[in-house]
C-alpha cells in the first residue's frame, strides 16, 4: 500500500505520555494515573529513537502533545522538547498539564518553551481559586502561549464486559483522533497505552495488542499506519455511553470509577 506520487503523508495528531504518574489524583482519570503507583519516565534515548522514526515515516506531523500523568514531573522535559524540535521542525508542540507545577519552574524552562515554540495546554481543575490565579498569572507574566480548558466534570466510558459494538463506539468516539505513541507502538487511542496499568492495578488480563502497531516493523509505512488509525479495533468493545460526574480527587480508586453506562451491544 503506497501513497500516490506527490501526495504527502501527514499525521494530524499524536500524543506521547512521557510520564504515567501524576501529582493530582483525579477520580476516573482516563489515563488511569491515579491508580498507577509506579513512576515512569520516558527514557530520552528511547524517546529520540521513536520521534526520529516518526519523522522518517511521515512527511509532516501537525501536532505532537506531551502529556501524562503530569508531564512537568519529567526531570528532562526540556531535553525532550529539544529532541522533538530537532526532528519535527514544523510540528506544533503542546504540553498538556494540570498547571500545578508551572509557578515553581525556573527561567530555563520558560526560555526553552519560547525557544522551541511550545504551547501549554492547561487543564484548569477546580483545585482552588488562588491556585488557579497563580498559575494563570505565571503563564501571563512569562508570556507563554497557552490555552485553558476549565474542567468541572469527568466521565466514565469503560465497559468491563467488553461486548460493545466496536464500530458503533468508534464512530461516535470523541477521542478516536487522540492517537498515542508509547515505547515504539502507536495506537488509535490512549486505552492500549494504559493496558498494563489497568491489568496491574485491578488484576485484569486485558489484551489490546491488536489495537496498536509497532512502528519499527519493516512492513509498516505511513499509509498503513494512517489506514490502521482510521479503523475500529478490539479495544473499542470496552467503551460504552459516557457516565458524567463532578470532578473530584480520589485516594483509593476502584475500577467502577471508570464505568460508563454499560449497555452491552449498544
Structure, briefly:
The chain is an alpha/beta fold and about 270 residues long. About 25% of the residues lie in helices and about 20% in strands.
Figure out the total of helices: 7
Write down the overall mean pLDDT.
92
What would you report as the Rg, rounded to the nearest angstrom?
A: 19 Å
Domain module tally: 1
CATH class: Alpha Beta
Structural class assignment: alpha/beta
Query: What is the global morphology?
Result: globular
Oligomer: single chain
Helix content: 25-40%
Low-pLDDT runs of 5+ residues are none
Proper CATH architecture: Alpha-Beta Barrel
Major sheet details: 5 strands, parallel
How many beta strands in the DSSP annotation? 10
The H/E string reads EHEHEHEHEEHEEHEHE
- Would you identify the CATH H-level superfamily? Aldolase class I
CATH topology: TIM Barrel
> How is the largest sheet built, in terms of strand order?
1-2-3-4-5
